[in-house]
Structures are given as C-alpha cells and as structure tokens.
Design goal:
Length: about 400
C-alpha cells in the first residue's frame, strides 16, 4: 500500500466549506459563540447598543444568573419514546414555547433586519413581535412573511398615531398587540452614553474608525436604503431622517402618564388579544389579570430600563401562583438556551420571549444565523425534556426543578 493509500484508509477529510456564512456558523455551537462572532463583525457602538443594558447591568446579569442558579430534578426510566415540544399561546399553536421578542432598529445588525427575523420565525413556526421602533414597516414585514405576527406598541403622546399603527397592524393580519409598559422614561445605558450612540448610527471620528474596522457592515450600510423608523416615515415625531439620541427621542415622544386606563383605551381600538409586557411584581400581575388582558410578559426590558429590577425568571413561580389560569404568562429575559425555556415553563410560564439571542445570530450570520439559533432552541428543548423524562410540554412542572436553592 502506498503512503497515500494508507493515509486515506485511516483519515477522512471533511469537505471544505466554501460558503462563508456556513463556515462562520460551523464554528458556533451556542448563543455565546454567536455573540462572540457578532462582537467581532459589528462596529463596537452597534454591538454595545444590542449587548448593553442600564447602569451597572446588574439586572441584565441577573436575568441569566436566575436560570443558571436553578437546577433540574431529572427523572429516569420513564419510557419516553417521543417528545412533543408543542404548546398553545393565545389560543394558537407554537412549535415550542417561544415568541421572538420585539427589538428596535434591527437593521443595524443586518440589512434585511426585521424581514429576516420574521421569515426565520415563520419557518420555525413561532410568532414574531414587530417593534413600533422597527426599521421595516408593518406592511413590509407582512409582505415578507405569512407566519404569526404580533405588534408591539409604545404609548406615544400622540394616541392618534398609535391608533393608526394599530389599524395598520390589524389590516396586515397581526394577531396580538404587545403593550410595553416599562418605559415611562428611558433607561440609562451607559455604554451608549459613553459612545454618544445615536440611531441611525452617526458618523464621527470614532465611528469612522469603527466603520473602517468593520468593512462588511459599513458596505452594507451605505449600499442599502437609509435606516429609518419605518412605521412613522414622514411623521412629525421624527422618523430618524436625522440621527436621534434614543434617550432624548423617547423621553420627548413617549407618554409617562400611561396608566391602566390606557389598557381600556387599547381594548377599544383593538379586537384581538393584548399582552402587557414589562410586569415586574406579583401585585401588577394581579392588576393585569383584573384588567382582563390575555397575557403578561414578565420583563425588565432585558435589563435595559431599571437596573435593580428583579430577574424575569425569579418572578415566574410567584406570579403563576397568583394568576395562573386567569392569564397567560411569558418569561422575557436571559434566555440563551432551550433548557432556560424548559425551566421557565416548568416554573409556571406558558412560554418565553427572547430578543438578544436572535440579534446576536443576525449580527453573526444574518437570516441563516437566526434559523440556526431557533433550530438549536428547538433541539435543546427536545433533548432537555428527554433527559428530564418528560414527554410533552404540558407535563413540565415544578417537581422537575430545584427552586429552593435560589
Ligand atoms: C428599545 O426598546 C431598546 O431597548 O433599546
């Protein structure tokens, strides 16, 4: 046997991947890996806007830590042949208990922005929540995806504008409204303050260097149409035609006097389900149930608003004890793996929301990155349930968690 034949008989060569995106994705096995890749590919200001949070970022860290502190009580020898991860939320089916959270300005991570995320969510059979502050409009997103879409609203001072957007979402067959209630004023994100970050990103000496160091991102930015607040183009609230400091923008345009009475107003202009996002106490969860909304998202806005707010996951069990059965519960914040989703559902949530996980994926590898992360989550949920000895998501309960050690 020649040396070449001997080598061939013992070594198998992997096919060389010529597709650059696939090559990048082949090196990633987790959300943490995608975050690392996104950090390298995106300008620092953009990455920090996505990755950062309020003040000392303690709440950001505690969202993840609350999951990490909780371990499972796995059951074995339960004869589980097949795992069914599907569930229902707001009366409609989900492939597994996850909703894609609303995130603003998604096009800063990738030129396709919200269109890419909506398409990936539809392929994964999960709902996608479009943000009011999106960079693709309600109509563009519906044209790109036939999947389940929810629309997130902020309380602008101009309620006429909110009403108009709600009517547009209804015409575009969005099925639920998500009212964000944790933004009375804007949180202080110190990474953005330090960088003087604006939206759309403004070119200054620092950003010029940052842009030059990330040529692929910069080329995409200049090659595509300008990044604007696509739902309010041409309106006097400002559509981002001139760069805005987000904190000034929100503090001047959003209404801090929002109250439970506005939820009644919302119901008068919208026939479908309403989700109140940003509940952070048991008391407010009870008020939401009393107000007759369909679901709440336990959320601290990914730690981007009040630093020191409780971790979303730590609220699930006490809130479920107070209101489960009256209202559906979504846990938003810190989800980085499918096992986090399983923990939240076992503690009493109906589903989770995740935002940063798909934004890192989008920044790392565009739409295919989002497909990848949603596929991982599904596989994680399936594998975790199999290892816990649970055949269906309805059978997830607190007996599977070691909540005491929290
Ligand atoms: C917008 O909602 C943000 O958190 O930046």
């Amino acid at each position: 046997m020649s040396i070449a034949e001997t080598l061939r008989s013992v070594i198998r060569f992997r096919r060389v991947e010529t597709d650059l995106v696939e090559r990048r994705l082949a090196r990633a096995a987790s959300v943490a890996d995608l975050r690392r890749i996104a950090r390298r590919r995106l300008p620092r200001g953009v990455f920090d806007y996505i990755d950062g949070a309020a003040e000392d970022e303690r709440t950001l860290a505690s969202n993840e830590a609350a999951f990490a502190r909780t371990s499972f009580r796995p059951r074995v020898l339960r004869g589980i042949e097949k795992v069914d991860t599907s569930t229902t939320l707001l009366g409609r089916p989900l492939a597994y208990p996850l909703v894609l959270a609303p995130t603003g300005f998604t096009r800063i991570a990738d030129p396709q922005g919200e269109l890419a995320v909506a398409r990936a969510a539809a392929r994964a059979e999960l709902p996608y929540t479009l943000s009011t502050l999106s960079t693709r409009s309600i109509e563009e997103v519906r044209a790109a995806s036939d999947g389940r879409l929810w629309f997130q609203v902020y309380a602008w001072r101009d309620r006429g504008l909110v009403r108009e957007m709600i009517e547009r979402a209804a015409s575009a067959r969005f099925e639920a409204l998500v009212l964000t209630v944790d933004t009375a004023v804007f949180g202080r994100r110190e990474r953005d303050v330090r960088r003087g970050f604006s939206l759309p990103p403004m070119i200054g000496p620092g950003t010029l260097v940052d842009g030059a160091l990330h040529p692929a991102w910069t080329w995409n930015l200049v090659r595509n149409e300008p990044i604007r607040f696509a739902n309010v183009l041409g309106r006097d609230v400002g559509d981002g035609a001139s760069p805005v400091n987000l904190s000034d923008y929100i503090n001047s345009q959003f209404d801090p006097s929002l109250s439970w009475a506005d939820v009644d107003w919302l119901r008068s202009v919208w026939n479908g389900p309403i989700v109140v996002k940003g509940i952070q106490t048991v008391d407010d969860a009870i008020l939401a149930a009393d107000a007759g909304v369909d679901a709440i998202a336990l959320s601290n806005h990914g730690g981007r608003q009040l630093d020191g707010a409780p971790a979303a996951f730590s609220l699930v069990a006490p809130v479920a004890d107070a209101v489960a059965g009256r209202i559906e519960i979504i846990c938003d914040g810190g989800v980085r793996r499918g096992s986090d989703i399983v923990k939240a559902v076992a503690a009493g949530a109906n589903a989770c929301m995740a935002g940063r996980a798909y934004l890192y994926a989008l920044g790392a590898a565009g739409e295919r990155g989002v497909d990848r992360v949603l596929g991982w989550f599904r596989a994680d949920v399936t594998r975790t349930m199999a290892l816990l000895g649970v055949a269906s998501s309805d059978a997830l309960d607190r007996s599977l968690l070691d909540l005491e050690r929290r």
